[in-house]
Automatic annotation (TrEMBL):
Protein name as catalogued: Alanine--tRNA ligase
Catalytic activity: tRNA(Ala) + L-alanine + ATP = L-alanyl-tRNA(Ala) + AMP + diphosphate
Domain notes: Consists of three domains; the N-terminal catalytic domain, the editing domain and the C-terminal C-Ala domain. The editing domain removes incorrectly charged amino acids, while the C-Ala domain, along with tRNA(Ala), serves as a bridge to cooperatively bring together the editing and aminoacylation centers thus stimulating deacylation of misacylated tRNAs.
Enzyme class, broadest EC rank: ligase
Keyword Acetylation belongs to the record: no
Function: Catalyzes the attachment of alanine to tRNA(Ala) in a two-step reaction: alanine is first activated by ATP to form Ala-AMP and then transferred to the acceptor end of tRNA(Ala). Also edits incorrectly charged Ser-tRNA(Ala) and Gly-tRNA(Ala) via its editing domain.
Cofactor note: Binds 1 zinc ion per subunit.
Alphabetical keyword list: Aminoacyl-tRNA synthetase, ATP-binding, Coiled coil, Cytoplasm, Ligase, Metal-binding, Nucleotide-binding, Protein biosynthesis, RNA-binding, tRNA-binding, Zinc
EC number: 6.1.1.7
Keyword ATP-binding: yes
Organism of this sequence: Wenzhouxiangella limi
GO annotation, cellular component aspect: cytosol
Gene label: alaS
Superkingdom in the source lineage: Bacteria
Portion of the full sequence shown: 1 to 473 of 877
Span of domain Alanyl-transfer RNA synthetases family profile: 2-473
Length: 473
């Protein structure tokens, strides 16, 4: 069997052989981009190269980039445990052209790697192009020879120019352009339709690789400015490719996750290996450990609050499995076993990372049980399917339940949370605090909202990571 580590290496080798410079993954805390919560794609560290404001000694690069999508524009937190293909933390394999090759070579490379190196049968692969991108369609159909029924054109979302699954953008502003995506058909046993059809939401056809043809820089007013030289940015989920090559449907069945789920089952005492909570824990330990290793600490705002929310969700899933002991911090060891070789910075810091998690786990452990009892009582007394805002607020304020944690529990029980009521309770508390003169400027906001905003309090870290990125470069 090809391990995930082998696949990562095969990818980097393939592109090294094609004159790409293999570049190390950058930190999860973006070094040069205050608009970005966490590194969410391989291209982030090359943003200024794409924009033309930074020059490198090479025009082709390849990397396996650690990414977190748990806040900001790309947020997959709510998908974890529900789809076979989403993680909060994942590795994105990518090849990049900085004004070097463009659509034709990019498509040839991708096709060559998947059908050649990886040996995937062409008839299992489906492709999409942006509706207006005749050039890409032509390359697929006439040059590569993809069957027309396996190619679809994806247009804009209704009434929204340049908003499409096939128009990639890093954020509200910055580099963007049309893209072409490659999907893998996991077979008719799994529900779901091909890309571009109304049934596509299933997990049968899984998006594997996205090739972005970066042609524009979008400014704050939405206008597109052509980039000085068109570039290519591609991203392929390592775990998704590993699932295909290891002959399993779900990312959670690949070697790395098998190892983590086994550990999570042992540490929590869970008997049902298929329990979604084990997947969530296995997912969350990767995000949390790598964020901490990259210098983020649990906090009540900004990046640190996103981390705290993920940690607390994981701990609550352990509680749900009936675990009463510390378990989450003990997942760092098994994680380092399976990923420490590729990420020596994780292996090196494993004890420190575990210590940070242990502190947070003990701290939340003091209020989790009481909070859950309060919530259970409230749920038992519900007359409709809505958890009152006042309850969500009490959980937040007294028991340290981030609102999305309460939402996560509500969703499991097919309930909703009265978010407006929660906001009102928050606002009332702010009023009280203001009256008591606690907040000088009167501009405190719910930590939850603050977490969605670009962090303003991380200048120290920015400095730290800029230096670090230099060391890694
Ligand atoms: P999806 O539509 O499945 O949510 P995406 O279109 O949001 O994926 P891209 O932004 O195109 O993803 O990222 C490039 C590639 O990274 C994807 O094709 C996929 O293989 C992988 N990827 C994206 N998000 C995740 C995730 N949350 N977990 C694991 N892999 C992911
Ligand atoms: Mg997505
Ligand atoms: Mg997609
Ligand atoms: Mg995509």
């Amino acid at each position: 069997m090809k391990t995930t580590a082998d696949i990562r290496q095969a990818f980097l080798d393939f592109f090294a052989e094609r004159e790409h410079r293999v570049v190390a993954s950058s930190s999860l805390v973006p070094a040069n981009d205050p608009t970005l919560l966490f590194t969410n794609a391989g291209m982030n560290q090359f943003k200024d190269v794409f924009l033309g404001s930074e020059k490198r000694a090479y025009t082709r690069a390849a990397s396996s980039q650690r990414c977190v999508r748990a806040g900001g524009k790309h947020n997959d937190l709510e998908n974890v445990g529900y789809t076979a293909r989403h993680h909060t933390f994942f590795e994105m394999l990518g090849n990049f052209s900085f004004g070097d090759y463009f659509k034709k070579e990019a498509i040839e490379f991708a096709w060559g790697f998947l059908t050649g190196t990886c040996g995937l049968p062409p008839e299992k692969l489906w492709v999409t192009v942006y509706a207006d991108d005749d050039e890409a369609a032509e390359i697929w159909l006439n040059h590569i020879g993809v069957e027309p029924e396996r190619l679809s054109r994806i247009g804009d979302k209704p009434g929204k120019r340049y908003e499409s699954d096939n128009f990639w953008a890093m954020g509200e502003t910055g580099p963007c352009g049309p893209c072409t995506e490659i999907f893998y058909d996991h077979g008719p046993e799994i529900p779901g339709g091909p890309p571009g059809t109304p049934e596509e939401d299933g997990d049968r056809y899984i998006e594997v690789w996205n090739l972005v043809f970066m042609q524009f820089d979008r400014s704050a007013d939405g206008t597109l400015h052509p980039l000085p030289a068109p570039c290519v940015d591609t991203g392929m989920g390592l775990e998704r490719l590993a699932a295909i090559l290891q002959g399993v449907h779900s990312n959670y069945q690949i070697d790395v996750f098998e190892h983590l789920i086994t550990a999570a089952a042992r540490l929590t005492g869970a008997t049902d290996r298929d329990a979604p909570s084990l997947k969530v824990i296995a997912d969350h330990i990767r995000a949390c450990a790598f964020l901490i290793a990259d210098g983020v600490l649990p906090a009540n705002d900004g990046r640190g609050y996103v981390l705290r929310r993920i940690i607390r969700r994981a701990i609550r899933h352990g509680y749900k499995l009936g675990c009463e002991d510390l378990f989450f911090c003990k997942m760092v060891g098994p994680l380092a076993e399976v990923m420490g070789e590729a990420y020596p910075e994780l292996a090196r810091q494993r004890d420190d990372v575990a210590a940070v998690l242990e502190r947070e786990e003990r701290r939340f452990g003091e209020t989790l049980d009481q909070g859950m009892k309060l919530l259970e009582q409230a749920i038992a007394g519900l007359e409709d399917a809505v958890i009152p805002g006042s309850v969500a607020f009490k959980l937040y304020d007294t028991f340290g339940f981030p609102i999305d944690l309460t939402r996560d529990i509500a969703r499991e029980r097919e309930l909703e949370v009265d978010e407006a009521g929660f906001e009102q309770a928050m606002e009332a508390q702010r009023e009280r605090a203001r009256a008591a003169g606690q907040f000088g400027g009167g501009d405190a906001m719910p930590a939850d909202l603050a977490a969605e905003l670009p962090a303003t309090d991380f200048l120290g870290y920015t400095q730290h990571f800029a230096e670090r990125a230099e060391l890694l470069a």
